[in-house]
Design goal:
heterodimer, A: mainly alpha, MetI-like fold, 2 domains, two-stranded antiparallel ribbon, B: mainly alpha, 13 helices, 78% helix, 0% strand
Chain lengths: 333, 275
Amino acid sequence: MNNFRASRFTFHDDGVMMSQDLVLAKPIARAKSSNRIATLVEGVRRNWLLYVLILPTFLFAIAFYYYPMASGIYHSFTYWDIKRTVWIGFENYQRMFDDPVALAAWRNMIVILVSQLVIVMTTPLLGAALVAHLRPGLAQYGWRMMFVMPIVVPATVVVFVWRWFYGGDGGLNTLLRALGLGALTHLWLGEHATALWAIIGTGFPWVAGLNFLIYLAALQSIPEELLDAARVDGASAFRRFFQIELPLIRNQMMVLVVLTFIYYLRSFDAPLIMTNGGPGMSGTLVPGLQMYRAVRDDLDLGYGSAIGTVLFVVTLGLMLINQLINRRQKSET
Amino acid sequence: MSHLRRNLGQYAIHAILLILAIFTLIPLITLVNLSFKDPYQFNIDPMGPASPLAFENYALAWRFMQDPLVHNIIVGIVSITTSIAMAAATAFVFARFEFPGRNWLFGAIMLILLVPSTVLFVPTYQLIIQFSLQNTLWALILPYAAHQSLIIVVLRSFFAELPSEMFDAAKVDGAGVWQLFTRIAIPLSLPVMSAMAIFQIWWIWNDYAWPSLVANAPEARTAVAAVIFFNDGMFRPEPGAGMAAAVIAAIPMVILFLVSMRTFVAGITAGALKG
């Protein structure tokens, strides 16, 4: 039996417990600050077990989030190869702005980002809308499963297969030759004109997955009465979709847009596995991959930290903008 | 008349969905198909059905993938149990107790959700090197165990919404914080925790960049890192075996999904939306 007995606590209606001592008012007049410190210390001492319970989380948080974050930002201003750290000010950042390879990386990432944003707002939504408009039953459930299941396949495996597809003797070229379109074959991942688009194209038709799942849930949560009323009024299926369903799932779509944005700002698995950033120096390079290579190949941790910090700032900025937009939307409605 | 028209609409939907499904499945079916092809058939006729089935591809791939699979399972189990245990305790405390600094501390945890992995990548790598943990499973377990903010958010709202009657009887009997936590809160939250656990394992299993950087040696390789290493490294296996390795890497996730379908979907949805 531990020190905490139920009688030590008073209970509010919402179930929140408060240490009784904190609730007591101190009638004796004292200097305010020492009074507050005294109650603070007592509060900590009374609730020692609570602090112990949250300590492990905080230890891990400090070790693997706060310290690395500070270290990363600090070291972005240094030359760092683990053995030594040399302060070089903004040199890493200067390099990022001057280096054409780095600029190409950012350009590639923007292309990927915009493409993925277009994708996330169209194909999975189309798939979800189709399934949502099916008559409820086994068929609808089956199709839902069909487009949800691919989530389980690890992304690396998917990228791996597509890499083979894009190969010189891969599936795509083989199919083209079989159809007599041999002239259209390319070294999809090896040619500057096609490499980036090939990577973006991975996952065609981009329907199955988490986006589909969320869109479907959103569409299916629209009250049937709204759609029935529109149907009675003679609205066609297209009208109903664009004027009722789409506006009602706008929030979920925004969530997915933000998630997609944040994901593709930092993800570099596909370029890493499919082309290692090529063809050439920067055909499909993205900043995240640059950072990875700075660590793995060049042991230039300072530069890598700088890239990481910039991506961090950009991500943070976008999230703040997103919050602002949300807040303004909420105050408008 | 309208009966026929409505059915026509349904058939049209089925037709389109069928086309989309075929295109979605072609890469996966091709993967499995290729994994059963001997080198000759792989090169001459990659897209046709494999026959005879080259099971030796799987024998070869299994020898290579065996250890990585075990690594993944160990890393998954250890990091998930510890992270959920820590997160549950933290969530419970923040959900149902007042104490000095409560809001600040909770804000500190929430702040973490804003930090993307990019800025952490390099320094965490240095941390691992500094403690000579590279190429050990700890390089994976420890950072994954720290990945708790999401779980804390979900569990906190779960605990906060529990009606106080659940705890009242026990409080009257003199139960303390620990008893309330272990005897009441945890058992009630098992479904939520399972969903979170599944989300974590899916996320861990999918992670490629980090393991390929800090744990690429045979002693610590993960499944997906092994697939790439097997294919691109010094082994140069028969291409069919390379595909077989990829299939082997995917199978545990497929099994997990089949066994826990609803929880799987719930976990991933919650994880993605709250994150």
